[in-house]
């Protein structure tokens, strides 16, 4: 029977499935529900010290459905971080830990570019017993106007400085959550890891405009006739998330978990941060989706929109599916296959070369030429030797 248990940055989780920061972790009631349903960990909705500066609007979501089924494949939100007072969160964090002392509760935090604010936020969250932090450097809408969220995450220097402030005071693991709205996601990630963060998480939502209403001629979601670009999530973002997680894992682990990478030594794949963790996010709704992110190097896999579409029971189904995948391949633990797929990425030039070699080998085999020692056959030995002679036509004259 395979084991789904993961130990990441000293946190012992029953499975790699983590509630991603957002509506599914927005108060004690729903967080307790997530633990009851067996989620490996919960990251609460992002909190800041002064919730009075946070004002949400409605509607704030827009969905993209597949054309032929009614399946939800894309989700845009213009939701801000938590609008609930920090003092209420302190009480609730305490109560959740009392009720679920073994549950891994991660506080997602965000503040303005002021050291005293970040230090206060970290110290007060730690005092009420949360198990780890995720620093939200990635919210793409609303908060960048206050130089928060993605505005910080897009500037590796500022991000590194803030991570430094946090790591000076935090005594529990710290993950930095990356925005995908950058050209090279490894640059801010490197800054976070250099500043002492135990891990990185990626991706947050992708800046998007969901669509334009062809009757009203206005963009959606429309609030009093107007809109703003929002954050895109759900199934549709998974390929982009996989690519970004691949880039992060390649930078951190080289060829996957620091294991040797046969067949691929032309790539600069030395891992820079083998001892740090990677939490993958983006469009996960099944055990198979999660397996792909783990094959790409992630220890944990977060789900946000998937819970909004399918509910909290998703954890149980995903555990069954991941276990079935592991049984099929004979993997006993998550570490058995983590990062395995990284070794199969190469350069385009190498793809061309591999294809040329494969075609040449196929041609040679077709002509009956032995290209591998295993192909020699006792009954055809003389014929096979003959076919390997250079300039055979001339030689035969
Ligand atoms: C409605 C909504 C609200 C979100 N709020 C937060 C938030 O407060 N903090 C945060 O770090 N990420 C937030 N996210 C981003 C998610 O945690 C996640 O990074 C993103 O949606 C991609 O994963 P998914 O496809 O599983 O949703 C939010 C996402 C959605 C859909």
DSSP helix count?
Answer: 13
Radius of gyration, in Å, reads 25 Å
Measured between the Cα atoms of the first and last residue, the distance is: 67 Å
Strands, count? 16
Q: Looking at the structure, what is the overall shape?
A: elongated
Q: What structural class do you assign from the helix and strand content?
A: alpha/beta
Helix content: 25-40%
CATH homology-level superfamily of the largest domain:
Aldolase class I
In words, what does this structure look like?
The chain is α/β, with parallel strands linked by helices and 397 residues long. It has two domains: 6-344, Alpha-Beta Barrel (TIM Barrel), CATH 3.20.20; 348-396, no CATH class. Helices cover 36% and strands 15% of the residues. Strands 3-4-7-8-9-10-15-16 form an eight-stranded parallel beta barrel, surrounded by eight helices. The chain has a four-stranded antiparallel sheet with strand order 5-6-14-11, with no helix packed on it. Helix 5 (156-169) runs parallel beside helix 6 and helix 8 (287-295) packs across helix 10. The radius of gyration is 25 Å and the shape is elongated. Bound molecules: flavin mononucleotide.
What is the gist of this entry?
The chain is an alpha/beta fold and 397 residues long. The protein has helices at 28-36, 86-99, 115-127, 150-153, 156-169, 186-194, 238-253, 287-295, 305-310, 314-329, 348-366, 381-387, 392-396; strands at residues 6-8, 11-13, 17-19, 41-43, 61-65, 72-77, 105-109, 132-136, 174-177, 199-202, 206-208, 211-212, 219-220, 230-233, 277-281, 300-303.
């Amino acid at each position: 029977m395979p084991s789904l248990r993961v130990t990441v940055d000293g946190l012992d989780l029953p499975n790699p499935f983590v509630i991603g920061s957002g509506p599914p972790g927005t108060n004690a009631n729903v967080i307790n529900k997530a633990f009851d349903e067996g989620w490996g960990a919960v990251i609460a909705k992002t909190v800041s010290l002064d919730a009075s500066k946070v004002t949400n609007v409605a509607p704030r979501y827009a969905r993209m459905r597949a054309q032929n089924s009614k399946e939800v494949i894309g989700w845009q939100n213009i939701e801000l971080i938590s609008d609930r007072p920090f003092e209420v969160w302190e009480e609730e964090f305490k109560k959740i830990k009392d009720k679920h002392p073994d549950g891994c509760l991660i506080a997602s935090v965000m503040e303005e570019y002021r050291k005293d604010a970040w230090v206060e936020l970290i110290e007060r969250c730690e005092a009420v017993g949360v198990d780890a932090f995720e620093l939200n450097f990635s919210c793409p809408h609303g908060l960048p106007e206050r130089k928060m969220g993605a505005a910080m995450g897009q500037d590796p220097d500022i991000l590194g400085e803030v991570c430094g402030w946090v790591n000076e005071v935090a005594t529990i693991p710290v993950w930095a959550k990356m925005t995908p709205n950058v050209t090279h996601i490894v640059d801010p990630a490197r800054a976070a890891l250099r500043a002492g963060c135990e891990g990185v998480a990626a991706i947050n939502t992708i800046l998007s405009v969901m669509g334009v209403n062809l009757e009203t001629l206005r963009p959606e979601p429309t609030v009093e006739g107007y809109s703003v670009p929002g954050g895109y999530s759900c199934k549709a973002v998974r390929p982009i998330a996989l690519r970004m997680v691949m880039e992060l894992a390649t930078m951190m682990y080289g060829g996957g978990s620091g294991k040797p990478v046969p067949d691929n030594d032309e790539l600069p794949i030395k891992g820079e941060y083998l001892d740090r963790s990677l939490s993958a996010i983006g469009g996960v709704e099944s055990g198979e989706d999660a397996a792909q992110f783990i094959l790409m190097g992630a220890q944990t896999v977060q789900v946000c929109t998937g819970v909004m579409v399918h509910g909290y029971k998703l954890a149980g189904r995903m555990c069954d599916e991941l276990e079935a995948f592991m049984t099929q391949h004979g993997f006993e633990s998550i570490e058995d296959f983590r990062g395995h797929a990284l070794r199969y990425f190469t350069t385009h030039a190498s793809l061309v070369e591999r294809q040329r070699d494969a075609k040449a080998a196929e041609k040679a085999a077709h002509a009956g030429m032995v290209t591998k020692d295993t192909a020699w056959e006792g009954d055809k030995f003389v014929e096979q030797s003959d076919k390997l002679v250079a300039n055979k036509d001339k030689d035969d004259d």
